[in-house]
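Practice record 12: protein with copper (II) ion.
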Amino acid sequence: MAALDAGGAGFEVRVQSQAGAPIEDVAVVLEPVSGRVPQLKAQVSIEQRDREFVPYLSIVQKGAAVNFPNRDTLKHHVYSFSPAKTFEIKLYAGQPAQPVVFDKAGEVALGCNIHDWMEAHVLVVDSPWFGKTGADGIVRIAQVPAGRYRLRTWHPRQKTAAAAQEVVIGATPARRTELALDVAPREPRHKPPADSGSY
Ligand SMILES: [Cu+2]
């Protein structure tokens, strides 16, 4: 493992393909080597809007309670069969009565029983320091305490998992960390026009 001097109050990563194109929706996580992880309270929502999940990728700290508000006028039925969190919210409109608590680290794939094309992912991590890349492939993780961390990346469509690397966050700002990842393009799924069916 190569130790990088990352430094400062913030940590910035740019993720690109082998060909140099920026990759969006890469989860970037800093896990403290010390194992000391404060539990931060965050309001997390995964909406259903225009018969899609928004956002496509969420990263949450283990123990987070996630709301699934339905912003559409039709009903959705959200489910996951993933070992890290198996649940369903049966056919509903509006705001479900209870949030879903993600109490185990791991990867969770979400679907909707009614709308086959709906797809979203939740990465549950054992750290409050994380972010995801934007369209420019860049993510900034703010206010990371000085110390040693394992830098992990994950993308729902990665072909191979990238190895974790150790980074040292110090007092001085460091240059941006550049990473390469091999990610398959998102497969288009058929979404019928909104007025075409009984849903
Ligand atoms: Cu749906």
